[in-house]
Amino acid sequence: MEIIIQPDSQQASQIAASIVARTVREKPHAVLGLATGNTPLQLYRNLVRMHRDEGLDFAGVTSFNLDEYVGIPPAHPSSYHSYMWAHLFSHINMPKERINIPDGLTTDVPAACRKYEQAIRSAGGIDVQVLGIGSNGHIGFNEPSSSLSSRTRIKTLTEESRLDVAAAFGGEEGVPTHVLTMGLGTIMDARKCLLLAFGKKKARAVARTVEGPVTAMVPGSVLQLHPRTILVLDKDAASELEMADYYAWVHEHKPDWQKY
Ligand code: PGA
Question: What is the rounded average pLDDT of the residues 93-103?
Fold first, then answer.
């Protein structure tokens, strides 16, 4: 795992954006795996700016989002469809037909999940998968105890995850109980994983993900088995890492050809 620690989330998000942008520039038909939540907001803002000011071209890019709430229409203001259009898709030139988000309104969940997996394979697989992490260690909505080899499927949210998003649904009672989410096996198939985490609230999950044992109880820890995972953290999210000084030293002394 490569751990990049930055003074704040703004600088961390700039690095994350340059990693995504480099992939898009090198591979105009890149396939991006995208995440929602508060964490990637600044990353998306940077990508929008790079599209506007530097001509970063998304015309050939395909995207697959990690997850969507079950039973929430795409037009609902708190759906992940709405989030993605508000923060990214309305502001860049990725063609609508190349945008993929799980269908939370499907009447046949297993078939929709199989179709999603098939669509990722048909697109050639994900080049860079953007990830946030839950305070309980989830990635996507793979809650603790998720199979480390799981594929896209329905999951039941934990109380902690529901509380985390309660404000967006006018209180906990309004939060959907189920989601469709890429599995940990789906995420592990991505050629590169880019996990962002900011703030003290994420420090424990980050430490367990990087330095703890690989366990289904900390779903992010499966990334220890991924050959190309980069974590971009702010100081607070890195504050419980035992080897933080080593990671910082490694980053500072990277050979030029390895830098972003
Ligand atoms: P957040 O959510 O970015 O809103 O903190 C991350 C997650 O739960 O995966």
Answer: 98
89: CA distance to ligand 1 center in Å?
19
**Ligand 1 pocket mutation pick from 41, 83, 133, 161 by most atoms within 8 angstroms of CB:** 133
Whole-model pTM? 0.97
Residue 134 Cβ < 6 Å to ligand 1:
yes
Paired with 34 in beta bridges are 65
Residue 216: other Cβ atoms inside 10 A: 18
Answer whether 39 contacts ligand 1 (Cβ < 6 A): yes
Q: List the 128-131 sheet strands across, edge first.
A: 2-6, 229-234, 192-197, 128-131, 31-34, 62-65, 99-100
Q: Is 38 in the pocket of ligand 1 (CB under 6 A)?
A: yes
Q: Is 167 in the pocket of ligand 1 (CB under 6 A)?
A: no
Instruction: Flag whether pLDDT at 260 surpasses 70.
Output: no
| Cβ-based neighbour number of residue 110 at 10 Å | 11
In the sheet with 178-181, reading across from the earlier edge strand, the strands are 67-69, 178-181, 153-156
Contact 37 CB / ligand 1 (< 6 Å): yes
* CA 255 to ligand 1 center in whole angstroms: 32
Count of residues in the chain: 260
Beta strand residue intervals within the chain, DSSP E = 2-6, 31-34, 62-65, 67-69, 99-100, 128-131, 153-156, 178-181, 192-197, 229-234
CA atoms within 13 A on the CB side of 72: 25
Which helix H or strand E contains 203, and what residues bound it? helix 203-211
